[in-house]
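Practice problem 4.
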């Protein structure tokens, strides 16, 4: 599984011949690419309706590439009404198999313009990742590995103010039991400045079996 960090909460994940974008805020200040740079995508996921999570860019990617848009019911219906041809209108707990990639909508504790805030568990044939969306920590995160695990990669916010801080994110990691974790949603704005090395040291104490990967916007890694 190849992971490219596009800044903030935005990721491009490539696995088993599929390309998935999550929260593609490609007009954001830390994005290394724009919508026009994306010429291939299969699935685009948007966790919630806040401008910094890329709903508008997701529409552009889906229209340019024919990718399938997946979000909570109200947001996906809006995308359909705005010209996206392939949509899935999930709600919390629901799954859909898109060409062999199983996408599950899971809870998050946050707010949202329309619909409700969510996270995603995405199961490729070979690997599984969890993107928490914007959220604080919650104890039922531990159910996600029970239901859908093992989780090969978790993407967790550490920036505080709008989401988990590093301490909450370390506890989230302990509950999720992923093989790898990448911190996100920090340093984009002054109010969410955070030190990912502090998160790394907290995880190495509490979850020694989890590997912490710190990426700068534009960097990729393979797991
Ligand atoms: Zn948000």
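Answer key:
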């Amino acid at each position: 599984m190849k992971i490219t960090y596009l800044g903030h909460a935005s990721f491009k994940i490539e696995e088993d011949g599929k390309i998935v974008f999550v929260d593609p805020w490609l007009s954001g200040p830390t994005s290394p690419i724009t919508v026009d740079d994306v010429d291939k995508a299969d699935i685009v996921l948007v966790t919630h309706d806040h401008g910094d999570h890329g709903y508008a860019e997701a529409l552009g990617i889906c229209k340019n590439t024919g990718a399938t848009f997946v979000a909570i019911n109200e947001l996906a219906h809006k995308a359909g009404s705005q010209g996206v041809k392939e949509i899935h209108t999930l709600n919390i707990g629901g799954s859909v198999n898109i060409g062999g990639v199983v996408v599950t909508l899971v809870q998050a504790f946050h707010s949202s313009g329309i619909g409700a805030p969510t996270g995603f568990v995405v199961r490729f044939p070979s690997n599984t990742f969890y993107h928490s969306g914007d959220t604080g920590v919650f104890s039922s995160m531990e159910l996600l590995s029970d239901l859908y695990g093992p989780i090969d990669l978790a993407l967790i916010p550490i920036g505080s103010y709008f989401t988990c801080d590093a301490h909450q994110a370390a506890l989230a990691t302990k509950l999720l039991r992923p093989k790898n974790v990448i911190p996100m949603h920090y340093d984009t704005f002054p109010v969410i400045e955070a030190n990912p090395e502090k998160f790394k040291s907290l995880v190495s104490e509490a979850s020694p079996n989890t590997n912490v990967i710190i990426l700068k916007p534009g960097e990729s890694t393979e797991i």
